[in-house]
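It is worth pausing here to work through a concrete case rather than discussing structure prediction in the abstract. The textbook approach is simple: state the sequence, then state the predicted structure, then interpret. We follow exactly that order.
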Amino acid sequence: MAVTVSDLIRDVMNVLSLFDGMGCGRIALERSGIKCDNYFASEIKPHAIKCSSTNFPDIEHLGDVTKIDPSTLPPIDILFAGFPCQDLSRMNKNRNGLDGAKSGLFYELMRIFTVIRPRYFLFENVIMENGMIWRINRAIGEITKFQCIKINSALISPQNRERYYWTNIPGDGDGFLGNGIKQPRDKGLRIKDILECPKKPTKLISEKPQTITIKIKKIKTDVDVKYFSGVVARLPGTYDTGTRVYGINGKAPCLCAKGDGSPQHILVEKSTARRFSVVEAERLQTVPNGYTTIVGRRKALDLLGDGWTIDVICHILKGLV
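Step two, the predicted structure:
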């Protein structure tokens, strides 16, 4: 018989979310039917705090992770942490790994973890080079005895988004890695399944057998049609990760976050092109419709690109229900 949250946790359930972003952990708990009495969040982005506080006014914000004294916290039942990826991501040519100013905050996570010793934990980060994932697995494994499992959000959404997850939440599979968490069932979703009605699409400047030209505002990009299945589009002769082109019958490339919300996500359908709406981007992350609209488009895309795919987290949390 599976051991559930109700069997193990105390009368008051406390959750701590480090690097909380827009409160994805809280969304997943609510969607999974897991009640928490206190949800403590550490986050410093003002628009992230505004978004999570608007949707969940009872979140208790703790501020900067480096200033948290874990000895002052009550017993923690679940610890969430999507620690910063900027210095780990393969998309960053100048990455400094765990020595970087942002991803080095991993050690703050470990500092707090070793003091609070939560009943359950769930950490997340991007796909990275083997040497770095080995280093992180070793650091987490020395404390928890668990290593990562890789899950692609494409199984439960129309977005290709491979991520590593570390957790001691029980699964029903076999094996040491990921504590027996199985891969989600593939729902077979495509871009066309999450679209709103188009709003003022832009006509393509030209359309040829192999290449189309897209111009939206100041961005003009020649994109080979083979990229429509969901690969980052590249300007000729460059490595431009700021332009990502989607075809309605394929999977979307991974939503990404930049402080200014600048990545250009372009949807191409027949002879027109347009940007994704915020609601469509939310659907790619399986976030509730309208959850991020309080902060405006640019900041919403920044939060969504930095966030978790909610239904993947719910899949992992099934071991507690």
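Step three, interpretation. The longest helix spans residues 130-144. The helical segments are 5-8, 24-32, 46-55, 106-116, 130-144, 278-284, 297-306, 310-317.
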